[in-house]
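Incident review: delayed structure delivery

Summary: a single-chain prediction request sat in the queue longer than the usual turnaround. Root cause was a stuck worker, restarted by the on-call engineer. No data loss occurred. The affected request and its eventual output are reproduced below so the record is complete for anyone auditing the incident later.

Affected input:
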Amino acid sequence: MPAPRDHSIDLNELIDHARRSERIARALFEVEVEVMNLSDSTSFLDRLTDLVRKRFGLDWVWLVLTDIENNERLCTALAEQGALVTVHRLSTVDFIRLVGNTRMPALINRPQRFRQLVPADIRPSVGSLAALPLLMDERVIGGLILGSQDPGRYQPGMEAFFLEQLAVKASIGLTSVWAREQLRRLATRDPLTGLRNRRDLDETMSQELSRARRYNLPLSILFIDCDDFKQVNDTYGHDCGDAYLCFVANQFQSLLREGDSIFRFAGDEFVVLLPNQDLASANQIGLRFITHFEEAGFGWQDTHLKASFSCGAASSEEAGLCLPDQLLRAADQRLYEHKRKRKTQASGQLPEG
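Output delivered after worker restart:
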């Protein structure tokens, strides 16, 4: 006769399984609580990946993002905000081919066959991984990837209930924070050029002036106006005018130092904030901008145009210029002085502040 089955072993296994499940559920809850109130995608993804790695004892956690358009904007935001999370890019076709059913976690213990999912620097060390699908608006944008050196950590056929839960929570959280971020962006960004707008300028100038006073540092600004923009619009049409403004905005962004900011003030007017720069430095920066645009050409269809502008500088170190509107008025006045001089002489020098 077969020996009677020891039901105490089954009971102990059930108890151990229940305790493990409780620990995992608690860890999931802790992760959710800590990331649910974060207000931007960078903070959310940085904190999410760090918490998941620590709470579940993983060696690596990273993102794989596909090449859809929304991901380009997300990657740009992560780069601008200095994200710490590792982002690995992959074509949508390759991602779907590798993970199969993109609505369920893929458990992989032969990572050499899935090397495209893994950043090159850790490929030799990864023993197994779980690819958790990330969805925005019901569209797969990539995956949250959990990596372990242990080949047995993740295997096809293993119970994946809690991984499914983590995938759902990560997708819902990212969708929510990205939507809020885009609403804020619409409120503070110029829709044509993508630059920060007048509303954001007012708030940022107040903050920068407060910081300048606190640390006894100067804050300078450049008020910029494109020369002959109306003529460009009238001659070549508004599509050309829009492209012209986008060209100017992109060129300025490429010329600015880290810490400087540019805003579209109105129409063809822009304002540059220059923290920790005195008036003389601001004037030199303005001259550098002018020189750059004298050499940089703007092409529209078969026509070669030259983008040029006038600018005026003002600084908080000057007497009576301690409020945002005072700085703007002073810089605006010098802008038009500069514009009048440019019409009468080609000296290329900014007026003295």
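Verification: The longest helix spans residues 7-35.
Action items: add queue-age alerting; document worker restart procedure.
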